[in-house]
Amino acid sequence: MSTATQAANQTLIHIEQLNLYYGTYHALKNVNLTIPEKAVTAFIGPSGCGKSTLLRTLNRMNDMIDGTRIEGLVSMGGTDIYSSDVDVETLRKKVGMVFQQPNPFPKSIYDNIAYGPRLHGIKSKSQLDEIVEQSLKQAVLWDEVKDYLKRSAFSLSGGQQQRLCIARALAVNPDVLLMDEATSALDPISTLKIEELVQELKNKYTIVMVTHNMQQAARTSDQTVFFLNGEMVEFDQTETLFSNPSDKRTEDYITGRFG
Amino acid sequence: MIKRREFDTGLEELSSLLQEMSAHVEHALIESLESLKTSDIERAKSIIAKDAELNELENKIMDIGSRLILTQQPVAKDLRRILVSFRISSDLERMGDLSIDIAKVVVRMNGEPVMKPLIDITRMVEIVQQMIAESTKAYNEENVDLAYKMAKDDDMVDQLYGQIIRELMSFLVEDPHKASQVMNLMFVGRYIERIADHATNIGESIVYLVTNERPDLNS
């Protein structure tokens, strides 16, 4: 599966000599990486290794943190996303994000999904209905909520809320979906549902996930990147990285002998 | 480096069980040869009776390996070490069975003395014995060179086997009454040759363990 994906898919995101500093702290050190489109790429590594930081550079979430300085290139579909003429709002529409804790808005299920499309100027009721239904179907939540669309999003279980957040991200028709530990607060069944969903979604979207769960990376991703102390140590097909890592540090980490 | 105590203990258990299986096979092979040389039916029978112990060891390896996969989610070389222990134990189990087959020949010959000194067959067994020792050493030291050397040992065993067949054929031409014993000795040669092939498989498993590649050393 993974070899075919890599061979068939074009590079969507290109990262070149990326350095990121939080004040004086050097959080990402000279990262070079290409992420193929319509595939799942997982970032793994111990806490503080820079994986979430790198994920957040992909939709410029780090811009919100004071004292952040970035050098190097991050391009998406050929566009340098840090170029001064890039509109960050448009970028974030193209690059959706799902977080560790489900964060639905204190609104109805329907309004959660319709929020983004409305923000981007869609007013027609029938068009919004269509988007809500399609997004919820893509997130495999439709059947569970179709009769309760006016209910508060908080009435849903944690796993359902997380799928609602995925549906909300999909509603604005993104290219990329970033998932930052998106299942770590969920029970095993909900986790499995999200993992299954990811396999569906990768046919249409480019997915980049950060996970502490190595079995999850092994199960769901096509490529895996291992980070340590802000450095990218190894990037390979998931199957290769988990069966025959080329760097000793990767092997120590994935076999649980890191220290 | 952090030690994963329970997991590493499990891997050590697998390693020592494999060593125990090797020792068992080596003993069965040597005893079978000695019983053949001395036409000692009782000695042959006592080897046959011990076969169950070898199967028991193989089952233990399956149990421990499955438990480690289930509870420890091993990856990379850790996973290969367990997969390889399954393969090696099944090769050793077959090697044990083939040694028993030699002992069964002794029982079938029913005390009839061998018609000639078993020089080449003894030489084959010595090489196989060396291969068994090499396989244990190569596994413990993750020594790929030694694993490849075992393939060369196997070539020598094959050569001796060819030689034995030719020699036995000439006996058959000389005296057709010897057909029964000639057939039995041919089987013995064949069993030892098969044991060497399984030992070569173990070499392949060790190369896979260390390099994640699957060579064909038996070709």
Shape assignment of chain A = globular
Distance between the termini of chain B: 40 Å
Structural class given helices, strands, pairing of chain A?
alpha/beta
The count of helical stretches of chain A stands at: 11
How would you write the strand order of the largest sheet of chain A?
A: 6-7-8-3-9-10
Our Rg estimate of chain A from Cα atoms comes to: 18 Å
Rough outline of chain B? elongated
Q: List segments of chain B where confidence is low: pLDDT < 50 over at least 5 consecutive residues.
A: none
Summarize the biggest pleated sheet of chain A.
6 strands, mixed
> Ranges of chain A with pLDDT <50 over ≥5 residues?
1-6
Question: Can you put this structure into words, describing what you see?
Answer:
The complex is a heterodimer of chains A (259) and B (219). Chain A has 259 residues and is of the alpha/beta class. Chain A has one domain (3-254): Rossmann fold, CATH 3.40.50. Helix content of chain A is 37%, strand content 26%. Chain A has helices at 2-8, 51-57, 88-94, 109-119, 125-138, 142-145, 158-170, 188-201, 214-220, 238-243, 248-254, and strands at residues 11-22, 25-36, 40-44, 68-76, 79-80, 95-98, 176-180, 206-210, 223-228, 231-237. In chain A, α4 packs across α5 (125-138), α4 (109-119) runs parallel beside α7 and α5 packs across α7. The longest helix of chain A has 14 residues, at 125-138. Chain A starts with a helix and ends in a 5-residue tail after the last helix. Chain B has 219 residues and is mainly α. Chain B starts with a helix and ends in an 8-residue tail after the last helix. The interface between A and B is medium-sized, with 15 and 14 residues. Chain A: GO terms for molecular function: ATP binding; ATP hydrolysis activity; phosphate transmembrane transporter activity. Chain A: Its main location: membrane.
